[in-house]
């Protein structure tokens, strides 16, 4: 009888130990030990370090990484309903090793440091979280939200000079796309053309840029009889930027793009160059989101 009770007690405590260790075992199995340890014991900082790994080159200057950490944290709090979409961008230990190779340990520590040293800091505007869009590089100048979208809710997202972006990696790209492929990808917003035109397809004369915004991004363009925005065209064709121009080619439409991303908010390339020049993350953020303020939250 005593042996039976003793065995039950042992089984009970064994169960408690397994229950306690199970989350750790699962995390190690999925992400590896380092990902579980993170920058500190706080889950928010761990997630943020993993998001930084997905959204940046971990070899960036630490102040540029800090600026990006504040931007990402602000978006996590601001877009509560879309939080999982942001968290899906976290990289696992395996993905980090594949991305960084021999720089894995060094870059991971920098991401963890950036998350930890900005812990709880977000960008604040009028008693709420600011909208903090960012992109890899502009065409040399970021875009003004009010001018492009007609939205006055974000007066701190204005056009900022970023001349150093012109030296960014893959800043200028040339894409050659067949006209039938363009017609296929843009079908959702193309107006119905007369049957003969629809059968023959488009040619170079059917593409016309009609208007640019003040930063040099295509604001309005024509495809046949359809008037659309440069952003619609960029998204449909998965172009790196809506700062583009057209050139004729016997094999399709040649599209030259400048920059990478939508062009709103912080340019990661310029942020990195500012950090190299001695600017701290507060100065970087104030340049791109002028009028916002840093606010500390308890995570």
Automatic annotation (TrEMBL):
Keywords: Membrane, Transmembrane, Transmembrane helix. The chain crosses the membrane at residues 12-30. GO terms for biological process: sporulation resulting in formation of a cellular spore. Residues 46-125 form the Sporulation stage II protein D amidase enhancer LytB N-terminal domain. It comes from the Bacteria. This is Stage II sporulation protein. It comes from [Ruminococcus] torques.
């Amino acid at each position: 009888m005593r042996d039976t009770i003793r065995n039950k007690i042992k089984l009970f405590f064994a169960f408690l130990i397994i229950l306690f260790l199970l989350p750790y075992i699962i995390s190690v199995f999925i992400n590896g030990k380092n990902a579980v340890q993170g920058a500190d014991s706080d889950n928010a900082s761990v997630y943020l370090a993993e998001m930084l790994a997905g959204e940046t080159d971990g070899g960036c200057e630490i102040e540029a990484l800090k600026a990006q950490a504040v931007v990402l944290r602000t978006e996590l709090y601001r877009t509560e309903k879309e939080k999982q979409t942001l968290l899906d961008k976290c990289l696992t230990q395996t993905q980090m090793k594949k991305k960084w190779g021999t720089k894995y340990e060094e870059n991971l520590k920098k991401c963890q440091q950036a998350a930890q040293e900005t812990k709880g800091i977000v960008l604040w505007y009028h008693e709420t979280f600011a909208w903090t869009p960012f992109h890899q590089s502009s065409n040399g100048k970021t875009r003004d939200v009010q001018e492009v979208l007609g939205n006055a809710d974000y007066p701190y997202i204005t056009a900022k000079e970023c001349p150093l972006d012109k030296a960014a990696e893959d800043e200028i790209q040339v894409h050659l796309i067949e006209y039938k492929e363009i017609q296929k990808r843009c079908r959702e917003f193309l107006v119905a053309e007369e049957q003969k035109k629809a059968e023959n397809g488009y040619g170079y004369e059917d593409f016309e840029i009609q208007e640019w915004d003040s930063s040099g991004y295509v604001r309005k363009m024509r495809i046949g009889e359809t008037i659309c925005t440069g952003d619609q065209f960029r998204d449909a064709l998965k172009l790196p930027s809506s700062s583009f121009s057209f050139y004729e080619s016997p094999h399709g439409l040649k599209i030259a793009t400048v920059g990478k991303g939508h062009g709103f908010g912080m340019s990661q390339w310029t942020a990195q160059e500012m950090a190299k020049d001695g600017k701290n993350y507060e100065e970087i953020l104030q340049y791109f989101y002028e009028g916002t303020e840093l606010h500390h939250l308890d995570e």
